[in-house]
Amino acid sequence: MSHLSRKVRRAVGILAVLAASTAPVLSAAVPANAAAAGALRITKIDCIERSDLFGADNPYFLVFIGNPGNPDLDTTVEVDPGISTDSGHTYIANTVISNSAQAGALTISVMLDQDDAKDLTAQEIQWIGNNMHNAWQIYFWKSKSERIAGLRSVLRSTVDSYLVNDDILGDSYATVVAGQTAVMPFTDDGGDYKVYYGDAPVS
After folding, report:
1. Are strands 106-113 and 59-66 parallel, antiparallel or unpaired?
2. Which residues, in sequence order, are bridge partners of residue 57?
3. pTM of this structure
4. For a pLDDT cut of 70, what percent of the chain falls above it?
5. What is the pLDDT of residues 162-189, one digit of tens each?
6. Which of 69, 80, 107, 108 lies 20 to 30 Å from 184, alpha-carbon distance?
7. How far is CA 112 from the centre of its chain?
8. Cα angle at 7 between 20 and 151, to 5 degrees?
9. What phi and psi, each to the nearest 5 degrees, are found at residue 16?
10. Is 40 within 8 Å of 107 (Cβ atoms)?
């Protein structure tokens, strides 16, 4: 992929946020004093079908977590379980996403397949996080469906703008609920996965 192509794709991701910032802001009730849920982790990964025709997938994630009670509190992190996946297998990951996720927090995740070295640098992940912080301040006040759709679009397009060789395996979302597990589908680029988020390790 040419350097010019990367710059064009990066500009598209940034424009998505700028366009969103011009949309009308709707008022909404803000949950007060959301209770801490503690650690949030990827517990399991079901690989229904890998995306690579030859060889295993090497999945990793960009995860946005928005505090349910504050439009100024959010984080975006890279999470790498460090496993290779093949079709028809389940993998125990038990990989921490956050040690301080709030009950009711919204998570938006993009799942990627690493091809050789990871495309995303620490600086680019910081830029993606800055973009998501701006988007969270916009979408926090919107309806639940608008919030989820808007944040998924912004995260996916911004991540994609920095990719060269890595592939997106899908994007999904879940709400943090203490003591419960969220199961999210990721289906894209020929891959089909179910990924489990929970607050306690599994065996």
Report:
1. antiparallel
2. 85
3. 0.83
4. 82
5. 999 999 999 999 999 989 999 999 999 9
6. 69
7. 10
8. 25
9. -60, -40
10. yes
